Every structure is written in structure tokens, then in C-alpha cells.
Amino acid sequence: MLVYGSGLLCRALLNRHVTKRCIHYLKRIVIQDKPLICKRWLSSSYVCLNKNVANIDLSEFPPENIRNFSIIAHVDHGKSTLADRMLEETNVISKSSNNKQVLDRLQVEKERGITVKAQTASLCYTYNGTKYLLNLIDTPGHVDFNYEVSRSLAACQGVILLVDANDGVQAQTVANFFLAFDKDLPMIPVINKIDLPGAQPDIVMKQLNKLFDIDPEQILKISAKFGTGVDDVLKAIVDRIPPPKAATDKPLKCLLFDSWYTMYRGAVVNIAVLDGCMKKGDKFVTHHNKKVHEVQEIGVMHPTELPTDVLYAGQVGYLISNMKNIKDAMIGDTIYHHNKPVDPMPGFKPAKPMLFAGVFPSDQSQFSALKTAMEKLTLNDSSVDIHLDSSEVLGQGYTLGFLGLLHMDVFITRLDQEFGASVIVTAPNVPYKVKIIGKQNIKKYGGDSVTVLNPCKLPPTSIITEYQEPMVKGTIISPDKYMGEIISLILVRVISFRMYVYQL
Ligand SMILES: Nc1nc2c(ncn2[C@@H]2O[C@H](COP(=O)(O)OP(=O)(O)OP(=O)(O)O)[C@@H](O)[C@H]2O)c(=O)[nH]1
Q1: What is the per-residue pLDDT for 503?
Q2: DSSP conformation letters of 352-407
């Protein structure tokens, strides 16, 4: 068991002094007995870190030498692979065939080969004799995890828009382009996988030009798999993405943009320092509940936690404090120094759940364990909407709102893999709205329109005058050869068809 003497090993692992022997030892411990350390960390440890990584002196990087950016793209267009090559090019990890999707740390990400959590990493890059600190955020591509992308963009001043040379522009390319466009973020368009035999970079360039008005001369062509053109991407980040507008001499103002729970150190939060500087030992306040905490550890992700004892204006990193209650780490919150309040950031728009399902412990005696697991996991996935629920058959549990079926599946898998919570999940359904009549009924249900998340909670049909189901306003972008079939599908499935635009 992870008891005798292994605390040291575990601390070493968490503090990033990872050696192969250490990982093997931990693997052995976990295989022989029940896994006592979070699997999240084990799966993140099979990375060939560069043995010669020196400590980073963050005072070398004033805001003008910092670039904060995200990689955004459709599913499988190569975001995590490009992140791997950037980590290699900047000597954060050694060049090794073992380094595949290094920033995909969760067990569920490794097993399914998809990114579900945005991850940050800080890289030092020297260009034209100047040292730059590049803070990269690798984002998920699947629509169900789009909330991760929108949150990540709040900590960036620019993005890399990656498109597969074979598949071309896809649905999430368009969605993510508009997310970045709405935030006015400069974009570096990059066509990836040019090594594939079916690659058609010229056609993809035309698509990018036609759909997004991107100048073909701005587009870079790379193979993230083989590293071709990756250095040009690093140079473009420095040249085309502006530095953060941050001032070290102003009072501290940080954006808390992500958080997760670790068994030994509690809540770990990702912060972007917008102004001022935050040091180990500083007392700070979380704006939403005005609680005071003390910084116990602070540093950058490199690609795991590397303590630096300080973060300066414009930098992005992590922070560990004495947050006892994990709800203290609210995503989108503003952090400032104790007794030096600043105007808070607007925060993040809450995610809109698309479907709901009941989640109950398989054994009712495990409800409080499920409650704790749920609190810890929702710290890392704030897009889940939680409502306490009870059922005559299944007992106490929750109705959870998810962004899609894959999101639901991944969340339930993570409950099991990361917290050992075994649950029964009811069939997912979409929320309905019903209009009801009768003064007393309206008083009882708190209004004449009731949102029904669970069919068992439907008011009596005798008082319902109208049922409303969710609808979306959608746009379909497609090559004209598919238009006939799309229109017949629309006529079968969709109520109203607004407009048809043909572009050359
Ligand atoms: N041939 C070729 N394959 C690539 C290249 N870049 C990525 N791939 C492959 O494409 C697949 C998807 O790559 P990922 O890096 O996981 O893609 P992603 O965009 O991060 O995926 P999600 O985060 O799940 O959306 C993997 O099998 C990669 O090996 C490339 O330049 N050439």
C-alpha cells in the first residue's frame, strides 16, 4: 500500500522530480494493492520529461515577452500532437516516441484518445536572441467539451486555428473560429497533417479563405506528427499574438480559470495573473465568497507542476492554498490580495445543459461518498449542472445536466476511475417546459411555466395547457453536392427552414 516511505515518492512525483524508477515503484504499489493514489496522476506520469530542465526564473519574462495562446480545432485535427511537438522543440520533454498526447492526462483521455479537459503548459522559447515565455492551452475538439474552449480563451490573447489537410474545415472548426472571433483574438491559421497521402492543403486554404476570409499568405502548413513546420508556428506565436496587457506595478488581479482536486494537496487552481504579482505566503481573497487564503505553493505547468514561488503580471500558472472547501475554487472568480480589493472580472457564462439524467449510488449507504466524489469532480468539470434528487426505487441521488451524451459518458467513467464511485444512471432525456393553469397550481409550481427535468416530476396533465420541447437555430455549411439530401432531411426533421445561401 502507499504507506511506508512512499509519501516521499509521491511528493517527488507531484513536485515533478519524476524518474522512471519512481514511476515503476508507484505502478507496482498500485498494481499489488488497491489504487490509493489518484489514477489521474499515474496516467500523467508516463512522460519522458527532459532531465535537464532548469528551474524557470519568471522575473526574466516581463509582459512584453509573454504570449498566452490556445490551440483550437475540430476533433482529431492534431491539437495534442502539435502541443507534444512544441513541448519537444522547447525542451520541456525529451524527443521520444513515448510522448504521445502528453497533455491528455486523464485515464479516460488516454483510453479513448480524445481530449476532454483543457490543459496548460508553459514553454521557454528563444527567438532572435530574446527569451519568451509561451503559455499554451491545449483544448478539446468535441462539441460536448466546448465549454472548456470558451473558458480557456479567457486566459489567452490569441489562438492557433488548426485544420486537418485531409478533412478540411469541419463543424468544430467553424464553432471554435467564431468563439475566438467573438473575443477578437488574433488567429494563426495552420493546416496540419500535410504528410498524409490524401492531404489537400491548397483546397483547405481556399476553404479557410472563403469561409473565414483568411489571407492564404497567413496560413502555415505543418505535420505535427513529424514536426515539419512546428518551429514556424512558434515564431508566428511570438510575431502575431500580442503580449498580455498587464502591469506588474498595479494591485494583484487574477482570473481563476480552472481547478481540480488532488488527494494529497486538495484544490489546485489555474490562474492567469492579469495585474500585479502573487508570491508564496501571500494572503489573497476569492471575490465570490470573500474568503481569505494563503498561497502554499505557486508555479507554472511545465508540463506538470513546477513551483516557482512567484507569478508575475501576464503569466499563467497554478496555485495551491489552504482552500478547505472545494467550492472556494469557483471557476471564473477574481482573486486579489487581502485588503486590496479590485474590480472583479465578469466571470464565465454558465454552461447550458442539453440533457439530464438521474445518477444514484448503486448502494444507498454510499450516498455520502458519491456526494464527496461529485463535489471533487465538478471542481474539474464545472459544466455539469447538479440537482439533488430522490427516487422511491433508487433512493437518494442526483439529476445531472450534461452538454451531450459523450460528456455524460465521460463524467460517469471519471466518477468510477478517479473516485471509485459506482452509480446507476437513468436514461437521459431533454428538459421540457409545460404551461400550467389555475391560481393554486401556479403558486404551487412557482410560475405558469414549469421546466421538467425528470418525467416523474411532470405536473398532472389536467392542468397542462402546452408542452414545449427544446429547439435550436442551426446553420448547415456543406459542399453543394450534398444539398439535395440535406434539404430532404430538413423537410423530414425540421419545422422551419429559413434561408439558403450559395457561395462560390
Ligand atoms: N499523419 C499525421 N497524423 C497526425 C498528425 N497530427 C496528428 N495526427 C494523428 O491524428 C490523431 C489525432 O491527433 P490528436 O493530437 O489526438 O488530435 P486532437 O485534435 O488533440 O484530438 P481531440 O483533442 O480529441 O479533439 C492521432 O492519431 C495523431 O497521431 C500529422 O501531422 N500527420
Answers
A1: 63
A2: ---EEEEEEESSGGGHHHHHHHHHHHHHH-TT-EEEEEEETTTEEEEEEEESSHHH
